[in-house]
Design a protein that fits this description.
This protein has 30 helices and two strands. It is an all-alpha fold and 696 residues long. Mean pLDDT is 75; it is low at 9-15, 24-53 and 335-345.
C-alpha cells in the first residue's frame, strides 16, 4: 500500500503541473479571442471559411517547438510520426500546418489518457489495478488517435460535397471542367481548397495520365479519386448531352447524392454506436467506487474482493470491457483511411520474422502453401483487409499466445502472493454473523490487533510442524502468559491452524499451468476470430458497395469509348470490400476475359455483386455496355429506394449487435461484481453462523 500511495501522490503531482500548463493555454486562448473580437465580423467569417484565421503566435510556436523536441524522444516520437502519417494521407497540409495539427491531436490524446490513468491511480487500491489501468489506457491511446483523425476525414467528405455543389454552378457558367474546378476551389474551405487546387493541377498537367495515377496513390477517399478520374475522362473526350442533360453535371449530381447517403450513414452509425463505446468502458471505472461502497456498508465483502475469486472477477470484467470496446469500434468503422495505402515502412512483425531462429520456429506453424488451410487463411487476411502476410500473422499469434501464458502464470503467482498477504494482514473479525453497516472504530482496532497476534504466532512457528495444534497452543500460552481462558485459547488455536492450512495451499498448482496453456491456445486463435468477426461485419456493407458500383457504372456506361476492362479498373479503384477479387480479375484479364470474370464470380460470390458481374460478362462478346446497363437509369428511383432500405437494415443490424456487445460489460458488472459477490459472501457467513450455533 505504501508504494501505491507514493505512485498515486506522484501522479497527482504531475496532474497539478499539467493543470497549470492547461491554465496557461486557456489564458492564451482567451487572449486570442479578445484579439479576434477586434476583427470585422465579415472579415472574421471569411477567414474562418478559408481556413486563414490565425491562432495565437505563442501557441503556434509552442506546437512547432514541441514537434521538433518530441520527435527526438524514442517512444513519444513514434506516436507523433504515426499521427503525422495519418494526417498527411487525409489532407495535403503544408509542413507548418501538418506539424501544428499533429501536435494538437497528440496533446488531446495525451490529456485524455493522462486523466484516465489519474482516475485509476486515485480510485484503485492496488498496484495490480493501477498497472492494468495503465495498460488499458495505452491501448486506448491508439484508438483515440483514430477517432480524431476520422473526424477530419468526415469533415473532408462534407467539404467535398459543398465543393461539388459549387463546381456545378461554376460549370453551368463556364462550360469548362478545369476552370469550374479552379473557381470552386477558390471559394472552398482551406482544406478542400488544397485538394481542389491539386485536382486542377492534375487536369492541366502536361502528362495528365501520369499525374492522375500519382494522385490515385494519395487521394484520401474514393470519391475524390473517382471524381478526378471522371472529370479527366469527360474533359479529354468531351461532355455529351444525355436524356437528362449534361453527362458531367449528371455525374456530379450522382456523386453528391451518394456522398449524402454516406454522410447520413456515418452520422446514424455514430449516433447509434459512439455512446456504446463509452458504455463498454464505463464498468472499468465504476468497479472502484462500487467496491469501495460495498466494503464500507458490507464489510464482509472485502474478503471476496481482496481474495483470489475477487481478483479473477476483476480481471475478467476488464477483459470483457476491452473486448466489447474493440468489437463496437469495429462495428462503427466507416472511414476509408483503413483502406488507403500507408507510407512504406518496415513493420515490426517483419523485423522480428527476419531473425533466423524466429523464422525457423514460425515456419513450423505456417501451413503448407498447397493446403486448404493456407488458402483459407490467406483469403481471410484479404477479406478482413489486413496488411499482414500469413507468416507475420502466425508470428503475431505465437507472440500473443506466449505472452498470454506468461502473464497468466505471473497473475497466478501474484494471486497466491496476495492470498498469503491477506491471510497474514487482513483484519480478523471474531463474529461470524452478517455484518451490515459500518464497523466501529473499536471493532476495527480489535480485528487489526487480532491479525497482528496471529501473524506473530505463525512467524514463530516457522521451521517446525506448524500445523500441530499442541505446538500452536504452546506458542499462544507463552505469548499470552495465562491471561486468557481455555475456551479462548481453543478458539485461537482453531483459527490460527486454519490460517496455516490455507497458507500451505498457496502455491502454484499443476492445473493452473493447464489453465495458462488453455488461455494461450485461445489467444493463439483470437486474431483469427477477430478477422472472422471483421469479415462478417464487412459483409453487412457489401450491399452498400454494390449500390455504389451501380452509381459508378451508370456514369461510365454513357461514355462512348468505354469497355469492360475499363469498368473493372474503375470498380477496383472505387471498391474496398471487393478490391482483392477485382485485383485478381484484372491481373488475369489478359489471359482471357471470360475466364477472369468467371473467377471473379467465384472469388466474390455475393448474389447482388454476381448479378452485376454477369452483365459485364454479357458485354464482353454479346452486347454493348450501354445495352447491358440501360435499365440502371430507368430503375434509378427503384434503386434509390432500395438503397435507403438497405442502409436502414445495415444500421439496424449494426446497432442491434452494438447494443448486445456494448451492454455486456455492464451486465457483467451488475451480476458478477455486485449480485454474485453479495450472495456468495452472505452464503459463506450464513454457513459460519450455522456452524457456530451447532457448537453452542
Amino acid at each position: 500500500m505504501k508504494l501505491t500511495t507514493i505512485l498515486s501522490l506522484s501522479i497527482v503531482g504531475y496532474a497539478v503541473v499539467f493543470g497549470v500548463i492547461m491554465l496557461i493555454l486557456a489564458l492564451n486562448k482567451r487572449k486570442t479571442k479578445k484579439q479576434l473580437d477586434r476583427i470585422n465580423p465579415g472579415e472574421w467569417m471569411a477567414q474562418k471559411r478559408n481556413g486563414t484565421r490565425k491562432e495565437h503566435p505563442k501557441l503556434v510556436e509552442f506546437y512547432q517547438k514541441s514537434y521538433v523536441r518530441s520527435s527526438r524522444i524514442p517512444f513519444f516520437g513514434a506516436q507523433v510520426r504515426r499521427i503525422r502519417q495519418r494526417l498527411a494521407v487525409v489532407n495535403p497540409y503544408n509542413e507548418f500546418t501538418l506539424r501544428k495539427e499533429t501536435m494538437r491531436i497528440t496533446y488531446i490524446t495525451l490529456i485524455i489518457t493522462f486523466f484516465l490513468i489519474l482516475a485509476f491511480a486515485l480510485l484503485g487500491k492496488s498496484l495490480l489495478m493501477i498497472f492494468l489501468g495503465i495498460i488499458g489506457c495505452i491501448a486506448l491511446n491508439g484508438m483515440l488517435i483514430d477517432v480524431f483523425v476520422h473526424r477530419i476525414e468526415r469533415q473532408l467528405l462534407r467539404d467535398f460535397r459543398d465543393f461539388l455543389e459549387d463546381n456545378r454552378h461554376q460549370y453551368q457558367s463556364t462550360k469548362m471542367i478545369d476552370e469550374s474546378i479552379y473557381q470552386a476551389s477558390q471559394i472552398a474551405v482551406h482544406d478542400m481548397k488544397l485538394h481542389g487546387d491539386r485536382i486542377h493541377r492534375v487536369l492541366t498537367a502536361r502528362n495528365p495520365e501520369r499525374a492522375l495515377n500519382a494522385y490515385y496513390e494519395v487521394a484520401p477517399n474514393r470519391y475524390l479519386k473517382v471524381f478526378t478520374g471522371i472529370a479527366h475522362m469527360i474533359r479529354e473526350y468531351g461532355d455529351k448531352t444525355t436524356s437528362k442533360g449534361s453527362l458531367y453535371l449528371g455525374a456530379t449530381n450522382k456523386f453528391v447524392q451518394d456522398i449524402n447517403f454516406d454522410i447520413l450513414r456515418q452520422d446514424r452509425l455514430s449516433y447509434q454506436l459512439n455512446s456504446l463505446t463509452i458504455i463498454a468502458l464505463v464498468p472499468i471505472l465504476l468497479s472502484f467506487p462500487i467496491q469501495s461502497w460495498a466494503e464500507t456498508y458490507f464489510p464482509s465483502m472485502s474478503d471476496f474482493y481482496s481474495g483470489r475469486i475477487g481478483y479473477i472477477t476483476q480481471l475478467t470484467m476488464y477483459a470483457v470491457s476491452l473486448v466489447a470496446y474493440l468489437l463496437v469500434r469495429k462495428l462503427a468503422e466507416t472511414e476509408e483511411s483503413k483502406y488507403i495505402p500507408k507510407p512504406s515502412r518496415k513493420r515490426w512483425e517483419k523485423k522480428i520474422y527476419e531473425i533466423k531462429i524466429v523464422k525457423f520456429v514460425v515456419d513450423r506453424f505456417v501451413p503448407s502453401s498447397h493446403t486448404k488451410k493456407y488458402y483459407l487463411t490467406t483469403q481471410l487476411i484479404k477479406d478482413s483487409n489486413s496488411p499482414l502476410l500469413i507468416q507475420w500473422l502466425t508470428l503475431k499469434r505465437l507472440l500473443l499466445a506466449i505472452s498470454t501464458v506468461i502473464i497468466t502464470i505471473a497473475v497466478s503467482f501474484g494471486l497466491h502472493f496476495n492470498a498469503s498477504h491477506q491471510i497474514l494482514h487482513a483484519p480478523t473479525y471474531n463474529n461470524g454473523g452478517l455484518m451490515i453497516g459500518k464497523i466501529s472504530q473499536k471493532d476495527q482496532e480489535s480485528a487489526i490487533a487480532q491479525t497482528e497476534f496471529d501473524r506473530r504466532v505463525i512467524e514463530n512457528l516457522k521451521g517446525g510442524d506448524a500445523t500441530h495444534n499442541e505446538r500452536i497452543r504452546q506458542e499462544i500460552e507463552v505469548m499470552l502468559s495465562g491471561t486468557t481462558s481455555v475456551a479462548d485459547i481453543n478458539q485461537d488455536v482453531s483459527r490460527i491452524a486454519a490460517k496455516i492450512e490455507q497458507l500451505d495451499t498457496e502455491y502454484f498448482k499443476w492445473y493452473e499451468l493447464i489453465i495458462a496453456l488453455a488461455l494461450g491456445v485461445l489467444a493463439y486463435y483470437a486474431p483469427i476470430w477477430m478477422m472472422l468477426f471483421q469479415r462478417k461485419i464487412r459483409r453487412v456493407d457489401m450491399q452498400n458497395e454494390v449500390e455504389q458500383f451501380r452509381m459508378l457504372i451508370s456514369i461510365l456506361s454513357q461514355l462512348d469509348r468505354i469497355d469492360v476492362r475499363t469498368i473493372l479498373e474503375w470498380m477496383e479503384r472505387f471498391s474496398t470490400i471487393f478490391k482483392p477479387a477485382l485485383q485478381r480479375c484484372l491481373s488475369d484479364y489478359d489471359s482471357g476475359a471470360s475466364g477472369a470474370i468467371l473467377r471473379l464470380k467465384e472469388d466474390a460470390p455475393y448474389p447482388e455483386f454476381v448479378r452485376l458481374v454477369e452483365r459485364l460478362e454479357n458485354s464482353v462478346e454479346r452486347i454493348s455496355i450501354q445495352e447491358a446497363f440501360d435499365d440502371l437509369e430507368m430503375e434509378q428511383d427503384y434503386y434509390r429506394e432500395q438503397k435507403k432500405e438497405t442502409m436502414n437494415r445495415l444500421i439496424e443490424s449494426k446497432a442491434s449487435w452494438g447494443r448486445d456487445i456494448g451492454f455486456a460489460p455492464a451486465m457483467f458488472l451488475l451480476g458478477g461484481y455486485i449480485i454474485v459477490p453479495f450472495l456468495y459472501t452472505s452464503f459463506m457467513q450464513m454457513k459460519d453462523l450455522v456452524t457456530q450455533l451447532m457448537h453452542l
